[in-house]
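Limitations
The structure tokens in this dataset are predictions for the assembled complex, not deposited experimental models. Users should treat interface geometry with appropriate caution, especially where small molecules or nucleic acid strands are included. An illustrative entry is reproduced here so readers can see what is and is not provided.
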Amino acid sequence: MSENRIAEHPILGIPEKGKKIKFTFDGKEVEGYEGEPVAEALKAAGLMVHRYTKKHHEPRGVFCAIGRCTDCVMVVDGLPNTRTCITPLQEGMTVQTQYGVSTKPE
Amino acid sequence: MKRYDLIIVGAGPSGLSAAIEAAKHGLTVVVFDENHKPGGQLFKQIHKFFGSKEHMAKIRGFNIGEELLKEASAVGVNVKLNATVTGMYGNKEIVVQTENCVEHFKADSIIIATGAAENVVTFDGWTLPGVMGAGAAQTMMNLHGIKPGKRVLMLGSGNVGLVVSFQLLQAGCDVVALVDAAPKIGGYGVHASKIARCGVPFYLSHTILKAEGEKFVTGVVIGEVDDKFNVIKGTEKHFDVDTICLAVGLSPMSQLLKMAGCEMEDNAQKGGQVPIVNEYGETSVEGIFAVGDVSGIEEASSAMIEGRMAGVCAAEYLGYCNKDEMVKRHTKLEDDLESLREGMFAPKNKGKNIELTEEGIPVSKSLLKKGYISEDEVESFPGVTHKKGLHPVIECTQNIPCNPCQDACKFNCIHIGEKLTSLPVVNEKSDCTGCGMCVAACSGQAIFLVNEEYDEENATVTLPYEFLPLPKKLEKGVALDRSGNVVCEAEVVDIRSTKVFDKTNLLTIKVPKNMAMSARFYKNLDTQV
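Predicted assembly:
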């Protein structure tokens, strides 16, 4: 298990998770648990940068984790500006770094 | 257009409470929430709540959430999830966006319980990945089982900053510093003490100068500020961190109320722009109520009572109960609410410099500055006594509305009395059986059982312990004092975990006699970092 995951929590016990599935991040195969937010699966895999801003190409990641700030948006299954912190992970999802609003570095 | 008796926006603690109260009176209630799970932020709250029985004190937040959901479903409350309310009109009509459609609904009464959003502060590098809200960290670790980072710096010493710092430690993260520009710790001293004794250093009158890193946070620089909040040159300190958490307050999400034409005000004490409401939580638009954080930032405990108040008022407004019945219920709830709004941290005392407790004891300066009470200060409080044999030592030194310790002791060893904010007094004449109920019941983890004469050379200290791995009987480690400094070797004499303690384990360590009033935490240097 990823060292970024809590194996057992003193109050909450062993985290309840869906079934283990595979998805891709920028073409690479990554593992996560079905139903957990895409951003959490990425965090567990050690990913920090979700996107680069359009004008200044600055990196952005998870800020609020509850779908308010839109900093964590990525291209998910081809759809840009998807809030990864509130999008449940599904088997075979394609997740890509977002540059501006596309998947190609400018 | 579909019509309801009552529409509630927000399925957090106040919205659900309002729905339950109204549905009990027979109203047809629907609750809209933008999230895919109900409960708002309640399910991230894993600490035991403060207050008295009426406020569900000593129950952990997420368990209160479970209870609310059960109650809501039992009385037939309809909660519609993934439904964002994007607009509201003064004629009590709302616009709801679901995945593929936008719908309008109308009600005879509306209760807005939309809560609040986290504030941010800006500094060089604040947009780097790795800088996040304290709430985000809480969401990651307590809802999804993910560590927000390995090494974390927390900005903000209010209750959110303090509570989340402790939760970071529980999740296995390292908290390298707790920083606040204010000269004093803003939250409860007991919350600060829990993290101070784990060794987290406090930097009051300090602020973040910059977050370092190219693509994500790799470090942070803080600096001391003077009384005008200007950085003092030469005071910069660097920490290697991968995460910076911001706990710098909340702002009410009151946009819908403004949109509907409710009279608003900018109220710094309440956290920003809030609707003007009467004693029943009703806004200037008849039949539209606002409850919980959206009408002023407070605790979840008070939000739940406010919800119930608006629920019964909506019932009366629509003729589902008579005025007398409503006033009776309302008065009871008002009393519960007022008792929570007492003490040093009461909304009315915000920003005030309180130097004496209600009992006239000087407030610990060390507690406000460093997060822990000094050894000589602690002796002046009525919960701290000395006697032969086992006895509780209650290091509760600020007037907070809370009394589970009094109820926990069946032998009347602990007295708080009628006034919820009074400091607990230990009755030296009562015999302590060592059951440990008070230790586990204290939401602030401020009670220790001390036996100053365990044997010829040693004393024992029983302390609340909520970390993994659990120490084992007879293992040897070190004892830490209130500041987190190692003071002596310690041997684990006992570790007790029962259902009634609700995950607060009672760890008893043996330390040299002269350490009985110093040793307040335990570490096994082999199993813990």
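Some entries come with short summary sentences. For this one: The mean pLDDT of chain A is 96.
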